[in-house]
Specification:
Blueprint lengths: L8 E7 L8 E6 L2 E5 L9 H7 L11 E3 L5 H4 L2 H6 L6 E4 H31 L11 H10 E4 L4 E5 L2 E7 L7 E7 L5 E5 L22 E5 L10 H15 L5 E4 L5 H14 L7 E4 L2 H12 L6 H9 L5 H4 L3 E3 L3 H6 L7 E5 L9 H8 L6 E4 L8 H6 L4 E4 L2 E4 L3 E4 L9 H9 L6 E5 L3 H13 L3 E4 L5 E2 L5
Parallel strand pairs: 3-4, 4-5, 5-6, 10-11, 11-20, 12-15, 12-16, 13-14, 13-15, 16-19, 20-21
Antiparallel strand pairs: 1-2, 1-22, 2-3, 7-8, 8-9, 9-10, 17-18
Length: 473
């Protein structure tokens, strides 16, 4: 029996609209509803942030979730979605499912710890305690609802809706989402997720779906390009040379993606003889776990980088960087504070909003002989952004600290495509698609929209909570 479908659909952005974090886009099609991502907003106190998160839709009425990748600003509210009644399938790639198990459990543990501290303060003040919005049981439920798919596999996920994942080259398992919507005529909706930069190590070049009618596209770096990888590595070499005889280098890095790329780059410097006398500390239990996952999925990474590692007999990233010391325990982390020079400390979080990096900042930020190296985007409202914007003093752990360390921003390590790469990706899609821009601050959105318009594309910018019906006339 042939079913007649209308090709009409709507898209409503409930996050990452006019902002970078909180990716969540609701698609209504054929009487069903699905979410593209379900991410949390980043920055500020975790407990307050989660208390403030409210869904502008009814979770139990959602029929499916399609997840682009495992960064928390794309997946972090999945446990809350489940806690509030969502029981449908969550489609993602296999590596993304593996990463989710690490990311969501860690986030839940941190949330519960912060909530316990907050409730203790509230009790002391005679105030009512706060109930958790979700628990580890909800994280486990999320993982049970996940249905992993291979890249390029086609799967009917709703009546008349077929899903295909393409490699987005952003982090392990990251995907560009393609939805084929049956109707008269058929329509193709593409969601870019986060697109990787073409020069980056370990990741493959982002794939481009052949055609589309509507592209929901990220715009994080829509207004600027990154420095070349070669220039970035030269700058890193200069920083290492400056600090060689005197200081310590601190590198805030995200546990997923950025840390593994840094280990590869430092491995390359080691094999060129440029890390003599240096010790690299990977001071993040989660990053250590994720690095092991990258090692397991090594054959899914860039073939040329695999060959480089094999040339030096390395089967893992730790093998490739012999001066690497993992410090999983708190005691091992604290021992790093005794080192005066010759240490490169890689620690989370990437935007300095939590994690062990804050303890290293506490011990070293006020000393001018040390160096603080930012390797990626710093969202508004984060401690990292305040430092990049030139703060002379910051507050951590209830105390005020002077900012005397030398600050560096290595733009070439960004996990996101730069402006030229975004435009080249968009230009390669056939079918005269409409573009709906998300996941960017206003300046980046406006700049990319202008460039796409000059290219002859139809462009609109997503607004929070505003339903969008594509006009294909």
């Amino acid at each position: 029996m042939h079913t007649e479908y209308s090709s009409d659909f709507t898209v409503t952005s409930h996050g990452a609209a006019g902002e970078v974090t909180g990716s969540c886009h609701r698609v209504e099609v054929h009487g069903k509803q699905l979410l593209l991502d379900c991410g949390m907003h980043q920055g500020g106190d975790a407990v307050k942030r989660l208390q403030d998160e409210q869904f502008d839709f009814v979770p139990r009425q959602m029929d499916a979730v399609v997840l682009s990748h495992a960064h928390l600003d794309h997946c972090g509210l999945l446990p809350l979605l489940v806690a509030e009644g969502f029981g449908g399938p969550i489609y993602c790639t296999g590596p993304t499912l593996n990463l989710l198990a690490i990311m969501l459990e860690d986030a839940a543990n941190l949330y519960q710890r912060d909530l316990d501290h907050s409730n203790l303060r509230r009790k002391r003040a005679g105030r009512a305690t706060i109930k958790p919005r979700y628990t580890l049981d909800h994280v486990r439920q999320v993982l049970e609802q996940c249905q992993p798919m291979e890249y390029h596999q086609k799967e009917t996920i709703l009546p008349g809706v077929t899903l295909t994942f393409h490699d987005a080259g952003h982090i392990l398992g990251s995907a560009v989402v393609e939805l084929l919507i049956k109707g008269e005529p058929d329509r193709t909706l593409v969601f870019s997720g986060d697109l990787g930069a073409s020069e980056r190590v370990l990741m493959r070049t982002p794939e481009v779906p052949q055609r589309a009618d509507l592209v929901i596209m990220e715009s994080t770096y829509g207004d600027r390009n990154h420095r070349s990888q070669e220039d970035t590595m030269t700058e890193l070499e200069d920083i290492i040379a400056q600090a060689r005889n005197d200081g310590v280098i601190m590198m805030p890095a995200f546990a997923v993606g950025r840390t593994q790329e840094l280990l590869f780059h430092l491995g390359c410097l080691y094999h060129r003889g440029l890390l003599e006398g240096w010790h690299v500390f990977l001071d993040s239990p989660m990053a250590l776990e994720v690095t092991g996952l990258y090692d397991q999925w090594l054959d899914a990474l860039d073939e040329q980088d695999q060959r480089v590692m094999a040339h030096f007999g390395a089967r893992t990233l730790q093998d490739f960087l012999p001066v690497l010391t993992p410090t999983p325990s708190v005691e091992e982390s604290m021992q790093i504070n005794r080192i005066e020079r010759g240490a490169i400390i890689i620690a989370g979080s990437g935007m300095c909003n939590g994690g062990r990096i804050r303890h290293h900042l506490k011990h070293r930020l006020w000393q001018s002989r040390n160096h603080l190296v930012f390797t990626g985007y710093q969202a508004r409202g984060t401690l990292g952004r305040k430092l990049v914007d030139g703060a002379t003093h910051i507050r951590m752990f209830g105390q005020r600290y002077a900012v005397k360390a030398q600050l560096h921003t290595l733009g070439g390590f960004s996990a996101h495509a730069g402006r030229h790469e975004l435009l080249a990706w968009a230009k390669s899609i056939e079918g005269s698609p409409r573009f709906r821009l998300v996941h960017g601050e206003p300046e980046a959105l406006e700049s990319l929209a202008g460039a796409l318009t000059e290219m002859g594309r139809h462009v609109s910018v997503a607004e929070q909570g505003v339903m969008f019906t594509p006009d294909f006339a």
